[in-house]
């Protein structure tokens, strides 16, 4: 049995899947299997994936159901005790798996192991996330995962490994949720297990690429993690839950404003307590009123033009 199962959910990433696979095959730690789960791609992605001749690579197929369904299929097919994920447009640095195995051996009591990452924008600009009260190069165990979310996200899908038995206890990824379903999973893990972490970038997250769900403003589902946090808030006292919830609600409000869903954004902002994030909330209110005025001006201008054409 291999040490690590690598699960790649694949949907229409023909431009990037080769780079992703290459980054896995170039790891300094080589005892792994790769499970590519094609989620009904139509752009030649799966055909490109199938050209790789390596006995460690398996390609599974399912009808288009979303990244969560693809990850779940990969989890169920995995033969290793440790499962890691990488999105089909992201990349690992050569030492990623070696760091994960190091953490697993040093902190065997933990349910998951993760490293920091860097963000690369379409402009090629690089961003290094700032993890709350976690110095650069810090290594250790998150005893309160929620606290670590108060600045940038400490964990992304392409920089974490989870013990397979963890999914037996907390369940699989929530299917049918196109946004935030991964963060909901890390929250569930963090509520039930300690997470070993090293604040050193070993993965590259490419933000804003073509076909990215996050960039599709027609997808406006309320993040599932918001519901999870609201339930936790009502059930038990956990430090920082209210702050994390406020942060996510403000992020969702911003998405609604960008999509010009002003009534929904207004409702979300009204129901968001934001003592720590008050400036972010003020900025979003200003953005809301600017959109309101812009829409009214645009509507008036269109009516003037329409009436002028009737003359």
UniProtKB/TrEMBL annotation:
Pfam families assigned: Glycos_transf_2
Domain (Glycosyltransferase 2-like): residue spans on this chain: 5-170
PANTHER family: GLYCOSYLTRANSFERASE, GLYCOSYLTRANSFERASE 2-LIKE DOMAIN-CONTAINING PROTEIN
Protein name, UniProt field: Glycosyltransferase 2-like domain-containing protein
């Amino acid at each position: 049995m291999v040490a690590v199962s690598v699960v790649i959910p694949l949907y229409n990433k023909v431009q990037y899947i080769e780079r992703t696979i290459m980054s896995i095959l170039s790891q300094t730690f080589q005892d792994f299997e790769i499970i590519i789960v094609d989620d009904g791609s139509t752009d030649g992605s799966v055909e490109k994936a199938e050209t790789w001749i390596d006995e460690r690579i398996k390609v599974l197929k399912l009808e288009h159901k979303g990244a969560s369904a693809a990850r779940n299929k990969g989890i169920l097919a995995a033969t290793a005790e440790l499962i890691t994920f990488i999105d089909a447009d992201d990349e690992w640095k050569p030492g990623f798996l070696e760091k994960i195995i190091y953490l697993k051996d040093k902190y065997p009591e933990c349910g998951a192991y993760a490293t920091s990452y860097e963000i690369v924008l379409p402009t090629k600009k690089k961003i290094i996330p700032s993890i709350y009260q976690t110095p650069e190069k810090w290594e250790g165990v998150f005893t309160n995962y929620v606290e670590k979310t108060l600045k940038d996200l400490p964990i992304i899908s392409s920089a974490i490994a989870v013990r397979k038995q963890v999914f037996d206890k907390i369940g699989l990824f929530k299917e049918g949720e196109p946004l935030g379903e991964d963060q909901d999973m890390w929250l569930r893990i963090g509520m039930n297990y300690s997470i070993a972490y090293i604040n050193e970038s070993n993965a590259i997250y490419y933000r804003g690429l073509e076909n990215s769900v996050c960039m599709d403003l027609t997808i406006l589902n309320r993040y599932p993690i918001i519901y999870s946090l609201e339930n936790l808030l009502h059930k038990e006292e956990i430090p920082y839950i209210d702050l994390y919830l406020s942060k996510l609600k403000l992020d969702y409000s911003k998405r609604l404003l960008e999509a010009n869903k002003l009534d929904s954004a207004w409702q979300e902002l009204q129901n968001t307590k934001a003592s720590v994030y008050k400036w972010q909330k003020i900025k979003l209110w200003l953005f809301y009123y600017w959109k309101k005025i812009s829409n009214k001006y645009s509507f008036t201008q269109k009516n003037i033009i329409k009436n002028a054409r009737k003359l």
